[in-house]
Description:
Number of strands: 0
Structural class: mainly alpha
Low-confidence stretches: none
Largest sheet: none
Shape: elongated
Amino acid sequence: xxxxxxxxxxSRDPKLLINTAVEFAASEQPIDHATLAATLNSDDFxxxxxxxxxxxxxITKQLRVAKVIKVLRDSPHGASKQTLITLxxxxxxxxxxxxxxxxxxxxxxxxxxxxxxxxxxxxxxxQVKGVNRHVTIEMLCENGTEPAMALLEKKLIDPRxxxxxxxxxxxxxxxxxxxxxxxxxxxxxxxxxxxxxxLRYILLEALVDYDERWYPCCYHPKPPPRLLIQDDAxxxxxxxxRHAKETMNLNPQLELAVEKTLVEIGESEENRA
Length: 273
C-alpha cells in the first residue's frame, strides 16, 4: 500500500502524524526517507506533534518524535541511517531543543562506522557546557568505531574538560567496553602517548581492574567477561599490559591486576617474566 505523504501537510492529529512518520521511517526506500527528513526538519510538523511546553518539560523518551527516531535507529536499512545523518547536519529538528538533540545523539550510535557528520554532531554536543555532554561520551563508547574512538580521545585530552568527569567517563562508559578492539587500540595510544600521565594510570586501571568503590552512587557498571574477548583485541590488550610493566611505575595492586589480566588472556608465565 503506497504511503500517503499528504498527511504530513494536512493532518492536525499528532497520533496520525507520528504513525505515518513511523511508516516512512521503517521504509527501505530513499525517496521515503527524503520525505521524512524534510518533515522532521519542519517547524510546522514538530509543532503539531508536541507543544513547545511539552518539548520543554517532558522526559526525552516521552516526546512523540522519539518513536520515529527509535525506528530509524533500529532499522537495518541504510536509508534510515542517512536520515539520521541528514538530521545531524542541522535544521529545525535539532535547533533550540536539547531533548531532540539528545534523541539524535543516542540514535547515531547505530551508524557504523561513524560518519563525519555524525562525529561533528557528537563533537558539538560534547562541548564543555553541553547539556548532552555525558550521554554523548557514553554513545561514543557504545558506537565503538575508530572515528568515535578518535573523538573520545580528543575529549579525554582536552584540558577544558574537567578531570573529575574524565575519570567518570573512563570508569562508567569505557570500562563496560574494555574488550572492544577499537577502544583498546585507542587506549593503547592514549596510555603510551597522548593522555596526561595521571589519566594514563586511571585508564590502565579501568582496563585491567575493577573496584566497586569507584562508584559511590547506585550506578555500578560491570566489566565484560574476559572470556568473550576476541583474539585481535587480546593482542592489543597484551601490548598495553607489556607496555605498562616495562615503562610505568605501577603500585602493587595495579601490577597484580596487570599480571592477572595477562593470565586471563593467555599470556604464558615465560612471556610474563
